[in-house]
Design brief:
There is one protein chain. By secondary structure, the chain is mainly alpha-helical. Helices cover 48% and strands 7% of the residues. The protein has a two-stranded antiparallel sheet. Helix 2 packs antiparallel against helix 3. The longest helix has 24 residues. The termini are far apart.
Length: 118
């Protein structure tokens, strides 16, 4: 069907451009969170709560991770940064990953989750 064709085309383009490897593609949100809602309710009852579909929130988390990976690759490939600068920036990136471990419960597969270590 069309969905398989689209999926195969996307995988081929991603691979051809070297954007990410198949094992880095996130399999999706954990089943228990599908069609769920993130509710941000302020303490002040006069202020309206904000609801966000969990799939939207999850997509944003995955995009943050993808952007961190691109940043990490650019830092490591840079010939203008000293090794000390690369190390320092890598430490910040690692701390960002560590801060995002809170959201690991959203991932379907454990290998897609964030890790603060190597």
């Amino acid at each position: 069907p069309l969905s398989n064709f689209i999926r195969e085309t996307v995988h081929a383009v991603v691979e051809a451009l070297g954007l990410e490897k198949d094992e880095t593609i996130v399999q999706g949100i954990a089943n228990r969170w599908e069609s769920g809602t993130l509710v941000l309710r302020p303490a002040d009852a006069s202020v309206q709560a904000k609801e966000v579909p969990l799939e939207t929130f999850f997509h944003k988390i995955v995009m943050i991770r993808n952007n961190l990976r691109v940043l990490e690759q650019k830092v490591n490939a840079s010939d203008k940064l000293s090794d000390a600068d690369k190390f320092e920036l890598q430490q910040y990136i690692t701390r960002c990953y560590g801060s995002l471990t809170t959201f690991n419960i959203l991932f379907k597969k454990k290998e897609d989750q964030f890790s603060s270590g190597p």
